Amino acid sequence: MDLIEAFFKIVIVIGALITGAAVMVFLERKISAYIQNRIGPNRVGPRGWLQPIVDVVKLVMKEDIVPKSANRFIHDLAPILSISIALCTFAVIPFGNTIELFGRTVKLMIADVNIGMLYILALTSVGVYGITLAGWSSNSKYSLLGGLRSSAQLISYELSMGLSIIGVIMVAGTLRLDQVVVHQTRYLWGWLPAWNIFLQPVGFITFMVASFAETNRLPFDLPEAEPELVGGYHTEYSGMKFGLFFLSEYANMITSSALITTLFLGGWSIPFAENLALSPLTMSLLQVGSFVVKVFVVLMFYIVVRWTIPRFRYDQLMNLGWKVMLPLAIANILLTGGLLLALN
Amino acid sequence: MGTNGKVIRKSDLGFWEKIYIPEILRGMRLTISQMFKPKFTIQYPEQKFTPPASFRGRPVLVEENGVERCVACGLCSRVCPALAIEVQASETELDKERYPIKFEINMLRCIFCGFCEEVCPEEAIVMSKEYELVFSSQQEAIFGKDKLLMSTEKLKDRLEFLRNHR
Q: Model ipTM?
């Protein structure tokens, strides 16, 4: 019975993630068009809403070209690695509280791991392999440079990401993501929801910046900087293998916004909703809805930032990572520790 | 913007500018406000761009009272940097005495520079507003007199523009 439950949750979450990624691709194109005073895709379906489907069909039908001197096995493996890790990360994120269905109490997260945060940090580190291997196996200088840059960038920003999570762990006193969310349902001074964004503002900023870097989004999209590297690590990829990289980038975006929501924006919690006296089922559904809305808002932020800020230069990127973000994250830990000691 | 050519060095930035975040938010306010501005897109096949008088479309021969103004002096074909124009002159009973018996522009060679229009002493070849040029063979791209002639009414805008700006 537990297996069936887990299976259904996996199917729903993966379906939602892939659909979400496809919708994000469309929204990104549409919003970027609006920001640049254009209309954007509007030919396929009503107002262009069927564009993602057509895109995927096009990618599937395209020829899969492998360069002559590429390492065929690793060349095939890299996109699979990328997408599977992007999807796996979502397993420990609680997208709702518990829900009563068919007489069972279902916890709305796929895997209730007691070290959820470590799991996420570990998987994002493995995620580098997809990109690095893609760059290396293509046997092209642009791909190799893209792969190199991305590994350097991810390793540099992983440190500040991990350290900014430590602040949250210290406040919540647990590594379980669902407990972190429950911890954020309290109130400060009776009116301010105790979201970690208010308790850990510096940690929020460092985590946000690090997650931008981890997802290779502008202003940190050096691994695929078009003017310098053609397409970066996926220069030599075509057809659906390229599509998988593309999809995993957007799936990563969704996962990291879900993580930001869970860690800093109160996860599925709705402030002051417990005063409304709703039935448990409505409450659970509303909480899932609130989670989705929060993730969506963070995703919109991602998109608007991409079309606002120019790309960093490589040395600026490293300076920011090592000389600004890392000290900030460490200072944040010291400050949090000091405050916790003083208050208790 | 508004620095009067003064170079901004990093040390000239204030504290709030150096920590990026308020500036990033300002930038985002700008991009978001752009989202609600009117759009410039023209839905091309259904909706067509109407060029202004200064537009340099495909070159045409001006037709006045049923005959071309051209006196076949050959200056246009001489000045054409892409060697797209071929003119063959012949005699006529009309006042102008000469006329082109053959006038061909190879539209695959034409670069729409407008030199022919500039050099023409009779204002006989001008750039029109037409920009949709489609051929299915190289032969088809060579426009003869039949395709090049265009009446003065259709070219009113351009002729007026040339008179005002030369």
A: 0.72
